[in-house]
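Researcher: Here's a chain I'd like modeled. Treat it as a single chain, no partners, no ligands.
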Amino acid sequence: MTKFEVTILGCGSAMPTTLHNPPSQLVDINNKLFMIDCGEGTQLQMRRFKTRIGKLHSVFISHLHGDHIFGLPGLISTLSLLGRKNDLNIYAHKEIDFLIAPLAAYMGRHLTFKVNIIPLNPYKEEVIFESRSIKISSFPLNHRIDTNGFIFEEKESPRHIIREMIEFHQIPFTHIYDIKNGADFVKPDGEVIKNDILTYSGNPAKRYAYCSDTAYAPEIIPYIANVDLLYHEATFAESELLRAKETYHSTARQAAEIAKEANVKKLVIGHYSSRYNELGFLLKEAITVFPETELANEGKIFEL
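Model: Modeled as a single isolated chain. Structure tokens:
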């Protein structure tokens, strides 16, 4: 079983409070560390929760409102002070260059690594990163400016070969890789041993979806359908439905309705308005629609 964890570094919204940090999360997939959004104070939160800042692989920015990006200059500076050599890829809308280019010019030769901006498509779903074991996609959300959600997916592992079958059928070592990836085994006399006799299923793919910020948007359901864990903003209570609509945000109940229609396994709500000092009523509104709901909170870790 591989590691797949989401750590909440910040789950507040635009107005700073003493209760919650601006938005940021870390997704750890088999010790590859990905950051989603980078609000002010994010690097301090990484220190606070003892995350490995030097192990950061790349950064994914949902949109260019300040509460999601103002932590980037400090983070980049600290990574340089730590002597990072590998490029840092930032997946964001191309306009983020207004922040990154002056910073890189200011730091000049003191910046120890290259920062690459990989532009997001705000109009359609796209795979933006893929390795042998991980796939990350972006998809459009419905906010006041171009905004994207993200899907982090651990690919299904190869099938497990039954050890006794190797010995019983005298399978050469050179055939093991192909059999794990679905091939049948053909004996020297031509007899075919079917793959499902030789193996059993590998670990199923696990998927995490991140949706912040967005108005209530049923059109995102096909992108996030059946995920293991969904983070969906819940800036307002249902009593502020009009305000949510005006600002292109969601209520806790709306987040739960999206989770229910998408048939997700678990919902986490966050991006709380600064007007709320207590959040139990937001959770109550959500669980009346989707019982498998939890509140995000700084330092909380969700395991998939």
